[in-house]
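Lab manual, section 2.4: Encoding a predicted structure.

Procedure: take the sequence of the chain (680 residues), apply the prediction step described in section 2.3, and record the output as structure tokens. A sample record is shown.
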Amino acid sequence: MAVALANRLSSLTFNPHEYVKELNEVCEEVEDLLSARQRIVNVAEETNGQLKKNVYKNYTQFIETAKEISYLESEMYQLSHMLTEHQSVLNSLREISITGDKVSDATERNSEIKEDDGRKNLSTLLEKIEGCVSILEVQDRYLIHSGDIMELNTSDYTPIQRIHAILLNDVLVLASWLPTRRGPVQYKFHAMYELDNLAVVNVKEDPSLKNAFKVLMFPDTRLFQCDTAQMKKEWLALIEQTKKKKSSSENLKLDNIRSNSLNPFDDREDLEETDPELPEWLLELPEDLDVCIAQRDFEEAVKLVKKAYGHFAAFPKNVSLKEMRIRIDQRKKNLVDILMKELHVSPDCSFQGGPRTARRAVSLLISLGKSSQACDLFLKHCTAILKHSMKQQKMDGATAPYIRRLCVIFFNNIIEAGKEFSGAFSNKNSCASAFVIWSVIQLQQFVQTFTRHVFTPQVALSAVSAECISLIRSHCEQLTEIGVDLSSLLDNLLQSDIERIIKESKDKLLEAINVRAVEDKWRKQNHQNKAGVMKFVDDMADLGITNVHNYVENECFVTLTTNTTAFSKAYLNFVDNLLKIHAPSVCNLISEALYVTFRAQLQHIENSIRDSRYSNDIIQVNMEFLLSTLLNFSKAQYKEKLNKDCPGLAKLQHELPRLLNLINSANGKHVVKQSRHAYV
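Recorded output:
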């Protein structure tokens, strides 16, 4: 059965609407529908279990694959190092003069040897660093200096981590130490800063901070400490020299481009055969991006990034674009980090404006291809707003008004977040499930707060708790306007507590019936005067019983006993509260509670009929009131609210003839008489 159901649900031609329609036609009772629902739940749980096993298996294989990739990466670095050495040897052999002549330009030769050695040393060094494959993609990049330094907290100067710094001819690379080493890899790539926009500041010596310098790279400011003063001096000098050399080299390249572009005698055919030179706007783009980011002109920065990547796509084989692409990638990363910080929640963050305040950052992150990160941060931002709004509400002693305020705030925030989410991620179907999961989690947390205030220990069903349950259900139904229906989930979360208070309320009502039964003397009520009787009639009319005046005698007496009146009021309140918290999952429990409590009162009447101390005439009047008036009114209320009959109350419809026969038997009569006070 389960296998067949699973195959049907997983079929490509499965139609859920047709399946539900078929279930409605086949299932004759509620139990059949609940059984079918349970079978579907079992299949879902079994499927989830299989998915978890597959995910665990794939995750294990992924870890093993990552380990193998790490080994292969190390071997590739070693192979690259060997190829570089062979290339260096071949170049040396090729340049040896047969006649023994010396190279004319010794300075240029020494510079080339130095760069070759730097690139060779860089290849050797990168073998020890994990995640830095892209560094060697730039052909003219070589090593200047490297060493270990300690990163400190900029506020209190406490150590953060040990860093292996690598100064190249165009960038500064930072790598963190790996706590668990495997193979030749000792470090993990941490960050890379271009020397163009990097500033190094010497930190003044004091007893609490020695041999330190700051690296300023918008938007970061990082503090490092060297082991000795000589190491610090060497780092500062080398970084400044490398920056100057790089700057002069780029200025010379830019001047050559400008002069070539103005030379009318260039051979255009030769230029077309080689890779096109970088345009001037692209050379200036990194600096333009830095300016836009510094001025928080994020929209313009995103336009520049898109323009650059469009140019990269137009010339995919241009080797000279690789270095520029790495520089743009770094700016894009900085831009993404800043936009993500806009969505991060800090203690001093302002929540005015609600989820709308995140609209700008979210749209820009989506434009940069960071939809998943934008979705995650947006939902975290909405969570912080929701928690902040909820904390602003203080418990003022009355439960119902407090719960009403919480429901309004919570569900309005969910609806507003849903509308903003739909507007921002309308074309991102993969993010839709994230919002549903977020809504489920928020509702679960809210129900915990709701339960803590409404379902307090030893508190039975009351008008307050019934009103609160009705409130949260009605507000939850409003989520359908954003395409989310969590009513079933809410009923499941509240079911155990609702069942508990129904049972406790039933037990308390039964206890009250038994106590009043012991004290019942079966006497008419004396209200002393006509005004007292009219007040009693009005009070019963407020509860819905409008024919109490038929039981008035001599303007101040009422043939209904105090016990009957007290039970009627308690039972009508009980029915009203149960109907407010009604749900399909507790329908049978409510029906049973209504039947058991009413039947307990009838049992008291039956016991009193057999007791010769009491007059059967007054017992018969009260019995007929309960079974004709109170019972019919309760059945009408149930059907009006739920549009169906109550099974428990229907079982009581044969009690009136039975009890009348019992009274007639006690009086020596065998003819059943109908009461003149029957409720119409």
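Check your result against the sample. The first strand starts at residue 129 and ends at 130.
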